[in-house]
């Protein structure tokens, strides 16, 4: 009975289990004009992207802070929030962004962002704390990491702990929520566990797999985040948050296997695998790259179990109780299989990857922009061609010389890049800023244009454009259709120049083959559609 109740609750907004704590929406189903205004940072990330719709459903007005607001286009809540350009480390931008804000969510961290992340985290937190105080923000809410008292912490866990202390010392009432492993479709921790368990029926593992962990479902994390906004001003402290189960990582993998219908795994612990070696092993087996795997592994070296459950005094447990491990895994797998993953760990850009959009001036910064451009007419409708284009990458691959793509992905992972294993958030639909293997969606105009920005390690910047150009009157179902494809590269120095000319001879095989095979796939889909049409009549 409890499981059925959980299933019913899981499809509803978390605000439904917080009666009396949230403002509630107006008669039109939208936040009231006088509702508290909430600012959310990290909206392009895994948690932030899920928190925004929950806050709207709870009746809060939301202001989304983003360095690149254009990356939020396509989000279902985009038109329902106030989107502001703001870098959390820029006091001038924050001054305007936090004006009239009642509650501010600080969901920023530098997990897997490379060297000097501690200084960057510290500086950004100090600037944000001071700006919030000067703007008379009534409450700050921060999601940090659960940690054991009195132990030397890993660098990333120590940094997240320091950020919480900075915010608590800001003079603004602050809620710091401390969580361990977050269970949810698309979270880095969940994906790491999922791929290790699914791909390795037998494995040797480091000793930390027998450390105790108190994981928590992403839905319960979101519920605590939403509920924290209503805490009274005299409450300013940290809270441990966790689910009802305390398990070792070994037990988590075995229980995942049981829920997923897999045979019991053979797991043998050894003492020679250091966190560094473990992270390299994780990056080879899972889609999580080494730069992100290492801080995740380092945090697992500690036993992370809640010391208290004081949060329940201000945010009571839901009527059906907190979500257990098995139910959280089951829900996550249902979303993955239904292609209903709202956000993923890949929402965050790869450290060192280019973030600037395709330049309009081909001679920007005194350099050149090399172009490989191809155009072909396809005996398919624009609609059929677009469906194939929008589904590239991930499980479907890149429609040409798959061995070359795999080798390029492997080489990229060996030098710290994302490689091809990130896949896609959704198998058939793309949004701006989605990750697609070692590319990121920079622009998508449905039915017309897909522009991908390279995030693999390169001595320069690269883009791949795929365009649908109707021929004739331009009807979405008219044949033929022009398929235009452009690969663009802006080299950095001599290494960039040499790279372009070294790979140029292979463009005909890689990009030419890609164009031909995409065109062929669209024509096949068009014939299947026309064959079905008479039968339907």
TrEMBL record:
Residue span, NAD(P)-binding domain: 42-180
Pfam family, one: DUF2867
Matching InterPro entries: ComplexI_NDUFA9_subunit (IPR051207), DUF2867 (IPR021295), NAD(P)-bd_dom (IPR016040), NAD(P)-bd_dom_sf (IPR036291)
Protein name, per record: SDR family oxidoreductase
Organism: Cellulomonas chengniuliangii
């Amino acid at each position: 009975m409890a499981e059925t109740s959980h299933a019913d609750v899981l499809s509803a907004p978390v605000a439904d289990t917080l009666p009396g704590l949230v403002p509630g929406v107006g008669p039109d189903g939208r936040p009231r004009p006088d509702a508290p205004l909430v600012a959310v940072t990290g909206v392009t990330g895994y948690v932030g992207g899920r928190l925004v719709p929950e806050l709207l459903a709870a009746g809060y007005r939301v202001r989304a802070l983003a360095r690149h607001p254009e990356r939020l286009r396509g989000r279902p809540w985009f038109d329902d929030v106030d989107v502001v350009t703001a870098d959390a480390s820029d006091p001038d931008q924050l001054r305007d962004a936090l004006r009239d804000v009642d509650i501010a969510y600080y969901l920023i961290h530098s997990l897997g962002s490379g060297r000097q992340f501690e200084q960057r985290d510290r500086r950004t937190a100090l600037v944000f704390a001071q700006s919030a105080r000067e703007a008379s923000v009534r409450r700050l809410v921060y999601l940090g990491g659960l940690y054991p008292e009195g132990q030397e912490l890993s660098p990333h866990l120590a940094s997240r702990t320091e950020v919480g202390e900075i915010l608590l010392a800001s003079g603004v009432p602050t809620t710091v929520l401390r969580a361990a492993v977050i269970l949810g479709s698309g979270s880095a921790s969940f994906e790491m566990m999922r791929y290790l368990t699914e791909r390795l029926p037998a494995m040797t593992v480091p000793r930390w797999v027998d450390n105790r962990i108190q994981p928590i479902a992403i839905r319960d994390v979101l519920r605590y985040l939403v509920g924290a906004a209503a805490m009274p001003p005299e409450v300013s402290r940290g809270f441990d948050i966790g689910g009802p189960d305390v398990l070792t990582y070994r037990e988590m993998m075995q229980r995942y296997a049981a829920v997923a219908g897999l045979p019991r795994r053979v797991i043998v612990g050894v003492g020679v695998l250091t966190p560094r070696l473990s992270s390299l092993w994780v990056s080879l087996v899972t889609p999580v790259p080494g730069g992100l795997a290492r801080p995740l592994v380092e945090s697992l070296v500690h036993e992370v179990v809640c010391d208290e459950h004081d949060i329940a005094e201000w945010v009571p447990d839901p009527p059906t109780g907190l979500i257990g491990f098995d139910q959280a895994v089951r829900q996550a797998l249902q979303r993955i299989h239904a292609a209903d993953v709202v956000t993923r760990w890949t929402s965050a850009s790869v450290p060192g990857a280019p973030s600037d959009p395709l330049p309009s001036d081909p001679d920007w910064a005194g350099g050149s922009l090399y172009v490989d451009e191809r155009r072909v007419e396809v005996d398919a409708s624009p609609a059929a061609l677009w469906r194939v284009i929008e589904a590239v990458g991930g499980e479907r691959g890149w429609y040409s010389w798959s061995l070359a793509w795999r080798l390029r992905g492997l080489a990229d992972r060996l030098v710290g890049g994302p490689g091809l294993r990130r896949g896609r958030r959704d198998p058939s639909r793309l949004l701006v800023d989605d990750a697609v293997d070692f590319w990121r969606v920079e622009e998508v105009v449905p039915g017309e244009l897909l522009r991908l920005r390279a995030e693999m390690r390169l001595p320069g910047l690269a883009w791949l454009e795929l365009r649908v150009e109707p021929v004739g009157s331009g009807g979405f179902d008219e044949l033929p259709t022009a398929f235009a494809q452009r690969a663009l590269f802006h080299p950095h120095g001599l290494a960039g120049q040499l790279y372009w000319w070294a790979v140029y001879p292979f463009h005909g095989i890689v990009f030419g083959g890609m164009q031909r095979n995409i065109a062929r796939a669209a024509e096949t889909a068009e014939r299947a559609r026309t064959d079905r049409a008479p039968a339907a009549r």
